[in-house]
Amino acid sequence: MLSAGLISAGARLGASADEQSRSGDPAVAVAEYDLGDTALTDSQSGTVSEIRAVVHYPRHPGARLPLIIQSHGSWWACDSQDAAEWPCEGGAKPFPSYRGYDYLGAVLARRGFVVASISVDGVNQTSFDYGDRARLVNEHLRLWAQLAAGRGPLVSRLGALTGRVDVGNVGTMGHSRGGKAAMWQASDKHRAEWPAGVTVRAVLPLAPVKFDDPEGDNSDTLVTRIPVGVVTGTCDGAVGERGQEYLDDVVGRTRQPAYSVSLTGANHNYFNTRWTSPSLFGDDDSTCPAAELTPAVQQSALTAYAVAFYERSLHGDRSYDAVLNGKRPLPGVTSATRVVSASRG
Prior knowledge:
- This protein is an alpha/beta fold.
- It contains nine helices and nine strands.
- The two termini are 32 Å apart.
């Protein structure tokens, strides 16, 4: 079993994510930054994107806190299914998929991480491109690097974190198409595109898309220099468990360990509370509805695994190895773990 401290920090089985996010944890502060729906025009593709995020962080932050960037996948970009343009037209508003991981951000913040969950609606409405998604992550990281240096537009919105975030110690998480984008952004091939001063040290693709384009060329998403932690579900009706192939790609090649956990009964959408009924457009995509996990249990299992992965990778706490290698099973669920050990220095 995991420690009581981890469960009480928010991975409490049976408590819904909304209950956890409304708990009013005095140790956690929440803020948002929003530079507008057209704040970024991608220099390579021309895709227009918003710069918007919710941030969970320790209410009394110390210096040099690790930063985690979360990125959602493809979903309705606007709160009207008839909207076809970006920005949303006809009175429609952007859909808040980025708020679907608040439960996880709050728990990680309590443990000493700064967590920014970013909105990717513009890309979803117009391009779906993985390079666009990865470069949007890099733009947010550029802004955080400015904040760390005491300048830039985030200072007026996140003043309490000015100079307190360590952009040399960054973790990322991407869900669904965002999972492939997170691997793209962290890949050996694309790491030269990271903003100056930024170092990504861990990447967690959650229920990720996995396919190579062109087929047989995995270079865009091959990550061998930083730890990888893949999470999939056996009842995922959207992308299945193809994401486990990210571990296959690095066998005999990686310099850092790659981990995975397959959650028995987990579907695709329940990881994001805004994709889960009764939220607008919420949907149960499970391939085995009679045996599926409840949203609360699925989210709690992800929380426990993500805490272990980031504590190990960004805080260097080796006591979490037993969670990542399966020797200490996740509480309340059945899961299968896998580890690809580092094969070279």
